[in-house]
Specification:
Length: 304
């Protein structure tokens, strides 16, 4: 029986993983550095993933045997304080791996991101294997994590797995401090008939994925026999790609008439180094990855 620790559990992905595991009667201990605003459907402890002793205590106390380590400072927030972002992203990662080795935990999930790519790869369609030269501290930390996953998996016989998530679209739980966040902000503003100022240029195409696809895909990936996984660090996955202007048009078609103003800021520079489309054929081949929600189905959920 899996007994799962989720770190950074109150973020965009964590709360959705909790819902999934809860439906499947899997034990979850959720941890974060702040208290939840509403009661969670699992055990919860305030704990900083940087605090090795506290996490060690919680792992032992709750007989944890799987970790979903979701703590991360995202791309835009990372640029405001790169030293802090590196420290949080990498120290917490190192702690979790070290604690896993010491406590006999073999299975770990750690999200990577489309931020690992950079201008040296063909950004109009990034392959699974291409030159990775990230330009943000977030992307650099994700790339470092990917390399460490490969290294630790070999050296310590661990089973750390990772996916390069594109922008994740969710409405119950929101992200914070990312470059792809605009998509959620625009949908919600226009749905509420509020003018929206978009921080990206209207033609900035980025890959996106609806939250249900992200959760179901991750769970499927984690359940696959290791022997079938040819990629030893992180798999490309994606749903659909869209520009802010294409999204605005879709929202107009759904009856939203509030204005969108395009006023790009520093996040444009980040987006300009990220892929427009992702080649996820390796994930499709190796473990049957596929998405279910395109943009129209995603918007249907919001406008139902
Ligand atoms: C971000 O925008 O920083 C994240 C990501 C794509 O990893 N949503």
């Amino acid at each position: 029986m899996e007994r799962i620790l989720i770190t950074g559990a109150l973020g965009q992905l964590g709360q959705e993983f909790i819902k999934f595991f809860n439906k499947n009667n899997t034990y979850v201990l959720a941890t974060d550095i702040r208290s939840p605003l509403k009661v969670l459907s699992c055990d919860f402890e305030i704990a900083d993933a940087m605090d090795e002793k506290r996490i060690d205590y919680l792992i032992k106390k709750n007989n944890i045997n799987v970790v979903y380590h979701l703590v991360a400072v995202l791309s835009a927030n990372g640029e405001k304080n790169p030293f802090m972002a590196w420290e949080i992203n990498m120290k917490s990662f190192q702690n979790i791996i070290n604690l896993s080795i010491n406590n006999g935990i073999k299975k770990i999930f750690w999200p990577s991101s489309i931020a690992v790519f950079g201008t040296k790869s063909n950004l109009s369609f990034v392959k699974q294997d291409c030159i990775l030269n990230p330009n943000t501290i977030y992307g650099i930390s994700k790339l470092a994590g990917e390399r460490l996953i490969d290294y630790y998996n070999n050296k310590f016989d661990l089973d750390i797995r990772s996916l390069r998530y594109p922008g994740i679209i969710s409405f119950d739980t929101k992200p914070g401090g990312g470059t792809t966040d605009y998509i959620i902000e625009m949908i919600q503003s226009l749905k509420n008939e509020k003018e929206y100022t978009c921080f990206l240029n209207k033609n900035t195409k980025l890959p996106m994925l609806y939250i249900d696809d992200a959760i179901n895909g991750t769970i499927k990936y984690m359940s696959i026999n290791k022997i079938n996984l040819r990629v030893k660090d992180a798999y490309n996955i994606t749903g659909f790609s869209i520009t802010p202007f294409e999204l605005e048009k879709k929202l107009n078609e759904l009856g939203c008439s509030a204005k969108v103003i395009y006023n790009s800021d520093f996040r444009q520079d980040i987006a300009d180094t990220w892929p427009k489309e992702i080649d996820d054929s390796t994930a499709r081949k190796d473990w049957g990855w596929k998405f279910d929600y395109g943009i129209d189905k995603t918007l249907k959920v919001v406008f139902k």
